[in-house]
Amino acid sequence: MKTKQAAPNLDPEQLQADIEHRIRDNGEAWRRYTCRLVTPMYGGGVIPGEVDRDMPIRATAIRGQLRYWWRLLNRHRPEHLTAEGRPDSSKLFASERALWGGLGDQGSLTASQVSVRVEAAAVAGKTSPKDGSVLGKMIVTDSAATVDWLPCNRPFEFLLLLRIDACEESVLQALRMWASFGGIGARRRRGLGALEVVDAEGQRLFAGKADRDAAKVVLVRMGDDSFADYRQAVEAGVQCLVDFRQKPGLARGSGTGTRPGGSHWPEANAVRNLTRRARPDNVHALGSSTPLLFPRALLGLPIVFQFKLHERLGDPYASTLEVADDGEIRRDRFASPLIFSAWPEPQGNRTIYRPVVLLLPTHIDLRKRALKLKIASGASLPIPAGTWWPSDPVKRQVVMPRGLRHVAGAKSDVLSAFLQFFQKGATP
Questions:
Q1: Rounded-to-integer distance, Cα 244 and Cα 420, Å
Q2: CA 192, CA 419: separation in Å to the nearest integer?
Q3: Which of 42, 205, 257, 360 is deepest in the core (most CB within 10 A)?
Q4: How, if at all, do strands 157-164 and 114-119 pair?
Q5: Domain co-membership, 267 together with 186
Q6: How many domains is the chain built from?
């Protein structure tokens, strides 16, 4: 009978020192980038919504981000297309696995050609009350809750090291997209966790037009507005989305005092119709003529609907709009196709920042999917594909908020309307 041999004792600190020593000694193989946080980072640790004090930046998280951008950039390359010219997911997956590695048995395990390391100091500090800024409101918790985010009025930097053994330019292209529109932690698409990334020569990384064209993304700048720092610019852009979705007098009624008015979007009445619940003054929503439309699903899912003050009067209890399950695969989330960022522009001895928004092509896939409304009982009400935002622009036009119809144009599409709204830079 064979006995297992005890593994030799390992000194974690010495092992880490040896690794760092080898990295520094092999300067030609490793690329070094200094990354500085320019908006607060929310979460980022292994526990959702928490900052890991000992390891605030995880190499695995950055690696996952780079892999995501690489996939977006390379899905339309000729070698990843079918004979008819359409993206072939199996070909893309094979190339992705060969470059980035993949798990499997002894015969299918693939080593990565890209190594990612991070050198970041531990951080001190406690959770703090969520502030009233636009970015603070993007963290969906109780308004009085404490949140875990960085920085708290102090700079935070870390060193990113990359070793690329194959397909160097495609990886560097993904790095430029991540540096410009990616980031770290949660809620990055809504402006949190943004970074300024500088190479060893002191040059800031930017995604150029060729990079954006390869990813099939659309970049829109906000009018002539400019700001003194990155965070102010991003907050101005995110505020545009808040106004587009629910600004009183534009996307909802003016209300009285602190009480908001009713939404001018059709989702509230669609929820009433699906759940067959409505307070007396909204009973018309239960009629057969009420369209079951959910246009703001295109801005990202899930969406939580709450009628709070009127539940006792007959309106629906809280419900959540999600992506429908895919056969046996449980689905709920669909990341927003909008990423808010800021573009620096040198002006003499200073730099100004202009708000920008990036539209990802992922909305094309969402439009083909069915949705579901998860209600208080735990049941899910199906919403078939093609019904929640129809292809007929005439049907869409009549349910767009009246104050937004002129920016929606003939297509009456939510995303194109928002891009026009954003570009104007001010509420019409």
A1: 11
A2: 20
A3: 42
A4: antiparallel
A5: no
A6: 2
